[in-house]
C-alpha cells in the first residue's frame, strides 16, 4: 500500500479555503455520525442528500450535485479524502487564489457527479464523498507540477518506508488505476464511484488548462522543468525499516 503523506511543494500563502473545506467536511460528518448505528436512517439520509442518478434522471435532486461532496460513508472514507486534500490542495489554492479555488473545487465535484450519473443514469444507489472534487485538484496539480516530489508511505506487511516519487508517476498511476477499474466487469459492484474520480480528474485538468496557459503553458514547464516554481521543501527522512531480528547463536554449537 502506498499512501501520500506530504509533498515537497511548499505554498507561500495560507490555504484558508483548503482549511475551511477540511473543517466543513469533518463537522458535517460529525453531525450525522450517530446515524451509523441505524442503517435505515443512514440510507434515508444519503438518499436525501447524496447524488442519486435515478432522481437526477427524473428531474429531481439537482442540489445533491453539490451536497454529496460533503458527505462520507465512513471514517476511513473521510480520512483518506481529507489526506489527499491536505497534501495537494494548498498549491492549487495558491495558483487560483482563494475564491477562484473554491469555485474550481466545487465545479470539479459537480463534473465528477455528472460523469458518474452518465455511467449509471438509472441507478438508485446514492453517491457520497469529496473524492470527485479532490480528483479535480489532483488533475490540476499534475498539470502544474508534474515533477514535484510526493512522499509516499510504503506499507508492506512489516516493512515500512517513506519514498519520494514524482507527481506524474503518483497521480498518473492513480488515474490509470481508476480507468482500469472503471472499465472492469465489477466496477458497479464494489461500491467505488470510479467514473466520478475519472470525470473529476479530467475536469480538473480542463478547468486548470486556461490558467496554466496564462502562466505560460509549455514555457512554464521549460522554465521550471515541471518542478515547483519555488525552492522545494527538504525533509529529513529517518529510516523506518523494521530492523531484522538477529539469530541467537546456540553456545553448544561450534
Automatic annotation (TrEMBL):
SUPFAM superfamilies on file: Rhomboid-like
GO biological process: proteolysis
TM spans (from-to): 16-35, 70-89, 101-118, 124-145, 152-174, 194-213
Main location: membrane
Root EC class: hydrolase
UniProt keyword annotations, A-Z: Cell inner membrane, Cell membrane, Hydrolase, Membrane, Protease, Transmembrane, Transmembrane helix
Recorded topology in the membrane: Multi-pass membrane protein
Residue ranges of every copy of the Peptidase S54 rhomboid domain listed in the record: 64-211
GO cellular component: membrane
Keyword Transmembrane: yes
Gene Ontology molecular-function annotations: serine-type endopeptidase activity
Record localization: Membrane
PANTHER family: RHOMBOID PROTEASE GLPG, RHOMBOID-RELATED PROTEIN
Name the UniProt record assigns to this protein: Rhomboid protease GluP
Species assigned in the record: Roseinatronobacter ekhonensis
Lineage: Bacteria, Pseudomonadati, Pseudomonadota, Alphaproteobacteria, Rhodobacterales
Amino acid at each position: 500500500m502506498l499512501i501520500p503523506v506530504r509533498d515537497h511543494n511548499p505554498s507561500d500563502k495560507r490555504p484558508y479555503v483548503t482549511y475551511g473545506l477540511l473543517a466543513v467536511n469533518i463537522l458535517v460528518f460529525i453531525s450525522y455520525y450517530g446515524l451509523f448505528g441505524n442503517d435505515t436512517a443512514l440510507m434515508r439520509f444519503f438518499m436525501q442528500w447524496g447524488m442519486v442518478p435515478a432522481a437526477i434522471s427524473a428531474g429531481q435532486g439537482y442540489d445533491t450535485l453539490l451536497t454529496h461532496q460533503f458527505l462520507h460513508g465512513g471514517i476511513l472514507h473521510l480520512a483518506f479524502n481529507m489526506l489527499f486534500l491536505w497534501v495537494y490542495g494548498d498549491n492549487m489554492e495558491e495558483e487560483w487564489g482563494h475564491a477562484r479555488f473554491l469555485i474550481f473545487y466545487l465545479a470539479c465535484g459537480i463534473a465528477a457527479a455528472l460523469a458518474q450519473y452518465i455511467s449509471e443514469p438509472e441507478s438508485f444507489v446514492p453517491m457520497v464523498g469529496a473524492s470527485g472534487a479532490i480528483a479535480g485538484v489532483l488533475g490540476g496539480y499534475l498539470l502544474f507540477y508534474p515533477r514535484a516530489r510526493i512522499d509516499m508511505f510504503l506499507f508492506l506487511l512489516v516493512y515500512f518506508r517513506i519514498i519520494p516519487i514524482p507527481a506524474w508517476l503518483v497521480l498518473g498511476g492513480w488515474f490509470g488505476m481508476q480507468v482500469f477499474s472503471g472499465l472492469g466487469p465489477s466496477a458497479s459492484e464494489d461500491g467505488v464511484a470510479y467514473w466520478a474520480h475519472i470525470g473529476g480528474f479530467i475536469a480538473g485538468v480542463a478547468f486548470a488548462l486556461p490558467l496554466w496557459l496564462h502562466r505560460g503553458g509549455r514555457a512554464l514547464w521549460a522554465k521550471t522543468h515541471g518542478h515547483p516554481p519555488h525552492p522545494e521543501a527538504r525533509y529529513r527522512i529517518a529510516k523506518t525499516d523494521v530492523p531484522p531480528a538477529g539469530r541467537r547463536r546456540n553456545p553448544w554449537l561450534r
